[in-house]
Amino acid sequence: MVRNLLGSVIALAGATIAVWSPFRAWYDGRHGRDYRFLDLFNGITDARAELAGSLLLPFLFTALITLVGALLRSRTLMALAGLVTLGFTVFWMVRQGQAASGLAVNADGTGLGMGVASALGGGVLMLLGALLMTGRGSRRRQRREKADPSAYAPEGATYDPPPTLTTPPDRGAP
Predict the structure, then answer these.
(1) Measuring CA to CA, how many Å separate 164 from each of 31, 129, 161, 167?
(2) Could you tell me if residue 174 is inside a domain?
(3) How many Cα atoms occupy the beta-carbon half-sphere of 115 within 13 Å?
(4) 131 CA to centre of own chain
(5) What does the alpha-carbon distance between residue 158 and residue 156 come to, in Å, rounded to a whole number?
(6) Domain count of the chain?
(7) 3-state DSSP call for residue 173?
(8) Distance of CA 13 to CAs 61, 96, 123, Å?
(9) Mean pLDDT for all residues in the chain
(10) Is residue 1 very low, low, confident or very high in pLDDT (cuts 50, 70, 90)?
(11) Range of the domain at 65
(12) Would you place residue 146 in the very low, low, confident or very high pLDDT band (cuts 50, 70, 90)?
């Protein structure tokens, strides 16, 4: 239970960081909210995006998946959200590299910015959260353990069923 809670907190922190990343500089001081979501598929342009149609859209989607995964204790949903976040970030980097004829990180603030690092870090935190979680466990396994707990005891260990209370025999009625 503690691992599920810790994994959920880490994954939700990663989702928060990923959602915050479009509000930071991504490339040459241009914020992620200025890139249109459709530019990922059509090529990066200089056109500015509305907030709802910007890079914020896929990160809000992954944050929603992360929240549902935390509520359902689903490692699969958490990992999916992390992979989608990393995928969109890398896809943007490929498209930006094509548009700018290469990517750079410069000391003067040009090139890749902290928004990209935040998106990548958020995706990694979501994956880490999924790895930390134990998940829900299958109901079939829980039923089998209840039916025969000795089958799941460590090797060499014996299983002693709990003692049962017996009632003393009747000694005769007065």
Answers:
(1) 69, 43, 9, 10
(2) no
(3) 28
(4) 9
(5) 7
(6) 1
(7) coil
(8) 15, 27, 10
(9) 85
(10) confident
(11) 2-132
(12) low
Interacting residues of 96 by C-beta distance below 8 A, sequence separation 6+: 26, 27, 44, 103
SS3 31: strand
- The amino acid at residue 91 is F
Helix (H, G, I), strand (E, B) or coil at 151: helix
- What tokens does 52 get? 């709802």
- Whether 162 is covered by a domain: the verdict is no
The first and second tokens of residue 33, run together, are 């909210």
Instruction: Give start and end residues of each alpha helix (H) in the chain.
Output: 2-20, 39-42, 56-72, 75-99, 114-132, 139-147
Q: pLDDT by residue (tens digit) across 114-134?
A: 999 999 999 999 999 999 998
* C-alpha distances out from residue 94 to 16, 39, 40, 53, 55, Å: 24, 12, 9, 19, 14
- How far is Cα 23 from Cα 118, in angstroms, rounded to an integer? 10
- Residue 156 within any structural domain of the chain: no
Domain-located, residue 91:
yes
pLDDT digits (tens, 9 = 90+) for 20-78: 999 999 888 889 898 988 888 888 888 888 888 888 999 999 999 999 999 999 999 99
> Which amino acid is it at 148?
D
Contact 26, 110 (CB under 8 A): no
Cα–Cα nearest to 93, from 82, 81, 104, 84: 104
